[in-house]
Amino acid sequence: MKLDRLLAKHDSIGRSQARSLILAGRVRVDGEVARRFDQEIDRFAAVELDADLIQSSSRKLYLMLNKPLGVVSATRDAEHLTVIDLITDPDRHSLHLVGRLDRSTSGLILLTNDGRWSKPLMNPATKVPKVYLVETVAPIPAHAAAKFRAGFHFATEDIVTRPAELELLSDRQARLTLVEGRYHQIKRMFHRIGNRVVKLHRERIGSITLPADLAPGEWRALTPSEMSGHATL
Ligand code: URA
């Protein structure tokens, strides 16, 4: 995109006003005062107007993916398809995962190349709720909810799991909300009550919900409200 167009678009001003700003020496591209208003600006250029950053030099990505079963939550894997293999954006290799899912779990995965954005989401102290739909092999007794709330001692890590909210949807289906992400946590919790998870799907992370129209394997950029919402979880 040409520089005058980029400025006009960003500041909702006319193109001639954008050109005047450039000619007045108020616009910098990658730190240099811009002299030509028809300068081509690619996505890797940093553009500033006075002290304001109009476009940052590296393109920040904030994506959601509906992870299908069988796909690995990793950036590379010698054997299986990874979540990155499903992303077609040219900058996909700059992405990291904001939390993982088992290969046998489907649903919402967040990916970004902005570590400052993902850090609070991944910090256990932030207690971001993660909501899962669980299906089990045997009926889930009503008293299970109290056990999930009280927590389970995991000997390997020597921790007690934080209170988890278990909502029974049918005799073998529940919605479970966790505020942490221990290794195979949900499968281990159900194992502790003598049951086995046969289907696990993540519906939500904080205020970001997997939309019904995002089919397994599909991804899209987060909307501005999804991106900012996690600050107010
Ligand atoms: N708990 C599990 O057991 N598996 C997941 O993928 C997520 C939470």
Please provide a written account of the structure:
- It contains 7 helices and 15 strands.
- The chain has 233 residues and is α+β, with helices and mostly antiparallel strands.
- The protein has 2 domains: 3-55, Structural Genomics Hypothetical 15.5 Kd Protein In mrcA-pckA Intergenic Region, Chain A, CATH 3.10.290.10; 62-232, 2-Layer Sandwich (Pseudouridine synthase).
- The strands form 3 sheets. Strands 5, 6, 7, 8, 11, 12, 13, 14 and 15 form a 9-stranded mixed sheet that branches. The chain has a 4-stranded antiparallel sheet with strand order 2-1-3-4.
- The radius of gyration is 23 Å and the shape is elongated.
- The site of uracil (URA) has 8 residues, from helix 6.
- Residues 101-102, 105, 184-187, 200 line the site of uracil.
